[in-house]
Amino acid sequence: MSQNVASEMQVRQSRKKLLLIAGIAFVPMMIAYAVFFFAPQLIPSGTTNRGVLIQPALDLSDHLESGGQWLMLLPNEDDCSKACQQVLHQTRQIHVALGKNSDRVARVYIGGRPLAQSETAVLKAEYPKLQYRWDPKMVEDLSRLEQSADEGRNRVFIMDPLGQVILAYPMKRVDKPLLLDFKHLLKISNLG
Q1: Which residues are within 8 A (CB) of 106 and not within 5 positions of it... i.e. 6 or more apart?
Q2: More confident residue, 5 or 77
Q3: φ, ψ (nearest 5 deg) of residue 54
Q4: Which fold has domain 52-188?
């Protein structure tokens, strides 16, 4: 009789352990299911990007070859004014600040019209690694992208190695925010 009681106690303890193990596995799944379907406001919806996310992304793969690199696109409709030169200087500093990942990124100046020969010579001497492209349609396409009224027009765009323009930066954010986003993108991406 005592053996029956002892074996019955072992069976109860084994069942309790089994239920505990099953509970450890299934309770978190049930909580996640309940939160996802019945309390979606509890799911974080924030993003970490500091630039303006472009949705849907603008596909420029037919117009501009990335060469497997991330591109900083610097569109400009007219002559390269003081603001334009400031953006060129800041993006060069950002490119250098990327350190070992700087070879994964290229900068492309996209002009709406060709610059004067003297201005082109000055820019090429000042920014030797900057690529130049004259394409009014591309400048127009980029200028049509959503712009923030309080921050001004977008000055720099990020294009991924697949040819998708994904982020835009107004003049106020062409500094540390652009650098931080680029570092984050290069860290998490295997592209480029």
Answers
A1: 66, 67, 69, 70, 71, 72, 129, 131
A2: 77
A3: -95, 115
A4: Glutaredoxin (3.40.30)
Helix (H) or strand (E) holding 78: none
- Please give the span between the terminal C-alpha atoms of the chain, in angstroms, as a whole number: 74
* Residue 33: C-alpha distances to residues 2, 30, 110, 146 (Å): 46, 5, 48, 36
pLDDT in tens, 110-120: 988 888 888 88
The DSSP output letter for 126 is H
Which residue ranges make up each domain of the chain? Answer: 2-42, 52-188
* Claim: this prediction has a pTM higher than 0.90: no
pLDDT tens across 148-170, in order?
Answer: 545 566 689 999 999 999 999 88
